Amino acid sequence: MHRSALAGLALAAVVITSAQAQTPAHPHAHNPAPASGHPQTADEARVRTVVTAYKDAITRMDVSQTPALFWEDSAIFENGGVEGTFAYYLEHHLGPEFADLAGFEFRNHEMTVEIDGDTAFVSETYTYHITFKDTAREPIERRGVATSVLRKRGDEWRFDIYHSSARPLRRAT
Question: N or C: which end of the chain has fewer CB within 10 A?
């Protein structure tokens, strides 16, 4: 668990530093993914493919192939909770939740990727909209963020640490 805690601190430092460097001059300005000034590398493309595959699986509500996107010793954190490995999270949290859902849609998804050797730091912002099979339940719409550390082992990139959190949307009045 110490590895996860140290990696989490490293991730937080990178995300904070990255966020400070990318903060728009106006607090309500649109902040698109930064132009890196160089072509996307093969590693960046592979990392984006892994992250997008996970997002797409959630949207399809078919997570049967998602274990291949995470290392066995991965660490998952969600909304202030430690969820354990992805296998545990899938069996005890994500999988059972999908049994109640009729739909899951991401909107306004943005992703930034920074590669440092065999480590990739990813941040995502998005909104999501959830509907339920029980139509008496109100849909849920939230603003979410995710930060991830992906590790390259051999030629394969997978999630090592995944953290997400969300809050209700703030509607303009």
Answer: C
